[in-house]
Amino acid sequence: MEQKNVLIVDDEKNIRLTLSQALSAIDLNPESAMNGEEALDKLQKKKYSLILLDLKMPGMDGMEVLRRVRTQRPDIKVIIITAHGTVDSAVEATKLGAVDFIQKPFAPKEIRDLVTLVLDREKLNEKNAEDYKTHFELVKKCINEQHFEAAITHARQAIAIDSSRPEAFNLLGVLFEIRNNKHEAQKNYRAALALDASYKPAQDNLNRSTEFDPRGQIAIGHLREVTDDDKGKKQDAKKE
Fold it and tell me: Do the domain assignments include residue 105?
């Protein structure tokens, strides 16, 4: 099988090296660019399946690179690299299809797991989606492709399958926020927290959307394993 090319765009040499080593370990072909101009030049010359993009760079910043990538190569998946958990233009980045974020510092395993998850979404088939997990990942795939109405549909289908889990409510809130409907966004963030008050992505999104932390990044969230204790609580709720 042909190796997939991944472009790493970061002005820090150590970050580029760490990411390259992590991705080589899972049989990907990483290449690096130290700034936005070099990244766009490489994109003109070669096909990449994924970009890992730092937003804070001298010269052309990551947001401008993201805008140009979406104009020139809308098919490419993008993972945003952030520092200190903040993105000045979190909503704009998500509107441009940046659905996955990772914060510095990160471990190589975190990178490998996230990159594998993002690339595996290519295999998802909307027609065969029947379970919560598939619909949840299809929401992210649709956001990446900027198909926001389809993303909302999959989020609602995930909720219809299992309304006891917070992740899809949080994602639905993100989608409403992208549409500038903060009321519905906050309602869904609160619905997620009503199901699990400790669910951090919904906590972060509610805080940011109510402007307690207006610069915070959008927290998309990942699926968590459902424990036996969770299943027991769900069965008890049904009995009531």
Answer: yes
Give the pLDDT score at 213.
46
Cα–Cα distances (Å) from 187 to 106, 116, 160, 165, in that order, read 32, 32, 17, 15
pLDDT digits (tens, 9 = 90+) for 76-129: 999 998 875 555 566 778 888 887 888 888 999 999 999 999 999 888 887 888
Instruction: Of 175, 181, 96, give the one whose Cα is nearest residue 138.
Output: 175
Q: Among residues 70, 98, 121, which one ends one of the domains?
A: 121
Side by side, the strands of the sheet bearing 29-33 are: 29-33, 5-9, 50-54, 77-83, 100-104
82 and 129 in a single domain? The answer is no
Q: Please, where are the H alpha helices in 46-181?
A: 62-72, 90-95, 108-120, 132-144, 148-161, 167-178
